[in-house]
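Archive entry. Fields below.
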Amino acid sequence: MIKVGIIGSTGYAGQELVRLLLQHKEAEIIWYGSRSYIDKKYYEVYQNMFQLVTAKCMDDNIEELANQADLIFTATPQGFCASLMNDNILSNTKIIDLSADYRIKDVDIYEDWYGIEHKSPEYLNEAVYGLCEINRELIKNARLIANPGCYPTCTILSIYPLLKEGIISGDSLIIDAKSGTSGAGRGARVNNLYCEVNENIKAYGVASHRHTPEIEEQLGYAAGKSINVIFTPHLVPMNRGILITAYGNLEKKVSYKEVKEIYNSYYGNEEFIRILDEDVFPETRWVEGSNYTDINFKLDPRTNRIIIMGAMDNLVKGAAGQAVQNMNLMFGLKENEGLNLVPMFP
Amino acid sequence: MIKVGIIGSTGYAGQELVRLLLQHKEAEIIWYGSRSYIDKKYYEVYQNMFQLVTAKCMDDNIEELANQADLIFTATPQGFCASLMNDNILSNTKIIDLSADYRIKDVDIYEDWYGIEHKSPEYLNEAVYGLCEINRELIKNARLIANPGCYPTCTILSIYPLLKEGIISGDSLIIDAKSGTSGAGRGARVNNLYCEVNENIKAYGVASHRHTPEIEEQLGYAAGKSINVIFTPHLVPMNRGILITAYGNLEKKVSYKEVKEIYNSYYGNEEFIRILDEDVFPETRWVEGSNYTDINFKLDPRTNRIIIMGAMDNLVKGAAGQAVQNMNLMFGLKENEGLNLVPMFP
Amino acid sequence: MIKVGIIGSTGYAGQELVRLLLQHKEAEIIWYGSRSYIDKKYYEVYQNMFQLVTAKCMDDNIEELANQADLIFTATPQGFCASLMNDNILSNTKIIDLSADYRIKDVDIYEDWYGIEHKSPEYLNEAVYGLCEINRELIKNARLIANPGCYPTCTILSIYPLLKEGIISGDSLIIDAKSGTSGAGRGARVNNLYCEVNENIKAYGVASHRHTPEIEEQLGYAAGKSINVIFTPHLVPMNRGILITAYGNLEKKVSYKEVKEIYNSYYGNEEFIRILDEDVFPETRWVEGSNYTDINFKLDPRTNRIIIMGAMDNLVKGAAGQAVQNMNLMFGLKENEGLNLVPMFP
Amino acid sequence: MIKVGIIGSTGYAGQELVRLLLQHKEAEIIWYGSRSYIDKKYYEVYQNMFQLVTAKCMDDNIEELANQADLIFTATPQGFCASLMNDNILSNTKIIDLSADYRIKDVDIYEDWYGIEHKSPEYLNEAVYGLCEINRELIKNARLIANPGCYPTCTILSIYPLLKEGIISGDSLIIDAKSGTSGAGRGARVNNLYCEVNENIKAYGVASHRHTPEIEEQLGYAAGKSINVIFTPHLVPMNRGILITAYGNLEKKVSYKEVKEIYNSYYGNEEFIRILDEDVFPETRWVEGSNYTDINFKLDPRTNRIIIMGAMDNLVKGAAGQAVQNMNLMFGLKENEGLNLVPMFP
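PREDICTED_STRUCTURE:
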């Protein structure tokens, strides 16, 4: 039984970790960290956990937790994890960081886009970008995982094979993304009130969203060179789900069948990636509550472009689910342990 | 042209007042009061007002405003209006208070249910409860109007005729109410975040909601004696709308036609009250954006009870619309000026 | 491994059965019946099942299915199951009927409220009303289960102990219920279109809903005499969830503690019923996706009444989840097999 | 008083026409055409119109209606209007067709994308594309108006000035559009049920939506040559509103100020087009219920592209509102008569 601690367990991603881990056979939560709710019963913060979790919220003493836990999930604000990391912690436990602190290898880019100083850049090199389907072998031996962002996970998984195979041009990429509101977190802000989000759609972070450099770095690896993309997220009046609609210029003449075969060759054996049937396009409702990413594409000969779509639950594959998948890989468990969740509809 | 000031113009009710008054031919807003946003352009707080309102938000100096305005709307937290009221203000201007400060005649009941001291109980007697269809003549000559609460407006209008005519027993009344989320205001609270309200229904203020004594007082006038009712509000994942479903024991044997005739005799000439056809029940979507209250009832001979339903837009007839209707009455304008709004669907 | 067939597998309740059974270790679906989609791949009707279900939809030949299956779930329109039932089927298999056909013992009441002739009243006596927490022992030995309606499940579980203990008067009961829209089924009707349901709340079936006699019969058993109640359902703009708010006259003076103890004595050992802490009231979001019913109450000394609230996922405990719970009981499995689902929020 | 008839008055666009015309001082509806509801009272189809409309629904006898009405709005399925048009009608009345029949000048393109034969191509030349801000003078003298599609209106208004001024390349255009569900109409289809649309986002009509050629034709006029664009609509769980996010390659180096000045020079005097302040981006909630189109842009020097956004109420400026605006122009009324509606929020 893996002993697990969560720092930041009362945010939406943290709570989703609790949901998944309670249904996981090989892991046990020993520490529900939450600076805001110390000493409050966890179920009083999330009544769905009534009679399922009896523990109280604890502080974020990561040093002490590192002594007790085999693994720590940090679902904390940007900068928090990096500010505490040290050799002692990493020699005592493993870390899966759900924040952005170790996702971007170039510390200047991180500091530029996030507007904060990185307090432990010495671990950037060691940290593994935990996109399981791409970096599986590296993850297995890692001590420190940078759990990918929600938008980047959906974007990279959807586009990676086509860039890697030279089908599309990296610099032509335009990613128009749409997310449910849980991605905005549980902070009490006017912009996230029910009446402000409901019956509305808007773009935000236009030409400036922090997930842009994360996407560019990872897709740059696929392209074999650095690339610049446009990434425009939109806020959708729904709880969960991310849909990305990406547009790329074709670098060569390809048929539907050829592109399909590329996807199959990359993902044919992947349990959590589903390449849909021809002309069936991803919808967030079909993955809700599960760890799946649904992907499909459409060639547009009129404009010599391809339209690529991916759908995912932002709290599962986009956060807590992928974190558990990383845990499973790091501890040699079945990769899908605790994750064979049938999407819940409606 | 009536010169109007609004104190609390950046809450949802305040903003709805702005929407209605911009479409009103005889009134002009000269003061957009908002303690939280002083000196900010009003349209930056509500972008729907871009190019419609150029004014900046102002403070809540009610003394100064009383010198400039013919009428002041106070859409402010409980206690605010009462704490500032004095003879000087009332001799210079008229007041329509959208808070609860002057709704309840018995100051002990007010202080008990609201948990605050009433700072100007000397005006309770003068203040007129601004339920237009019931107190029309009193309103015409008032200086100080207590604009009714949203739930009380819908409840009292729906039930009043039957109590007055002795059809139902006052103490048997159970009012199960449902409201959209704009009723909870624009304050940044976790409980009102999109993800907390969406896909959920809950009761709140069970056996303790502050609108209970307001309902009891007004329905007590109809019954001719003091009564105790159960009032249970619920929060519905929608922006606007209140539906009340009320249950009462029949005091005498009545037919559908007899009850219908009672309603017709009270409301047959009322523009803003619509008694629906038999077996067509009120739905909030059919009144959205308008000043209507839709009412209907169903006799249940199996249990010797009557079920009464009323639907209303909580921000219009339940707040800003009724406030404008009161203004029209106080200034001798057409009662429906600025209020002949066709409900917007969908 | 129990071989299971589902007739009506492409309705919302049928699909929820599929979701639950795919995660059940002791059952295997061998027949996805769906008259409307014969020969279509099941996942083409519900894309969440892509790569999880490869079977095609089949007809509703219940005689043939009875030969192959250990258990048949019928999630079919009223009258269908009763029209096909015979001794041969019941000697070959077990039946859990999710329709209303065998819920009401008095065939006249059934025919009166449902407006159709009952084609096999001879099985009414044998059929067990499958409310697991109340009829557990009878269910274990049943061949034919009448799976309770969604509203009745939530209502009866919430009120049963208080009636049984004589705390409240049966004839005083008023049940004001609210349901998500999945309860209305997947039929293509204008009334259930997105734009008609969204941003609206309405009552329906006022004083005439078919779940009324089902509630009255079962609560009558608790009261020890026949009772008449008011039951008013409302349609809420959300996918899942039922909340009932019930009002009853107190028959004796009781304290919070006494009522709490009654609930504990009935449900203290029930895994799927959670009596909440004092003044914490049920909300549908906290049970979504799970088999829980959350219950609480509030005494109102001002009116000498009690307010009882219950929340449930209408598709799980209100339909498919309870059906699986019944299956587990009938086949001697762990009662919670396949049902220890953590509620999913948000 | 202009006598107006509506054929197709019980669809969402038809009903919105009724809402707007009831608040219009110079027009009177004399014919509520609805093939599906002949002889039914109009308010029984739309209860918001109770006591506002007493008329019954009538057939679609356009010849007879042409004798009675000064103007006919056809809010009918594709092909209907074209199949009935003749000289007699056009000599007796004016027509504003809300369908696509006369929007596309090239009959082959129409027949190809719509899959139906055009029954009166002889009127294509005469018909004026009723995008008021672009074709104002032509509209004033027209007998037959092709009222633009919802997506095309929002797209063309947002992009037109930049194409016309040679700022962006036409063939580089990618339009990622998002619409509320009222755009899908009131037909009873499973795909538009509440539970299917709610908590979901999806693309549809990928690389094949019928509004593509309409956009291409109109933007081609701006570009001065034929262009091919990608247009991808998405369905958003909300009632009203369209947001387009468009991406174009810059043809020259431009500053924020230069682009802003272009927009100002085209739209500075337009009442219904609002160019927002820098870095304030359009959101559908801020235009709901009104005839406004809110537009803004963001230069992205990293990729040498521009991101253009536009928001609109699909039922107002995208359908009925623009139709009324066209009527006002055709009859020499104030262009904003009946249209100075303050957007309703929340």
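CURATOR_NOTE: Chain B is about 30% helix and 20% strand.
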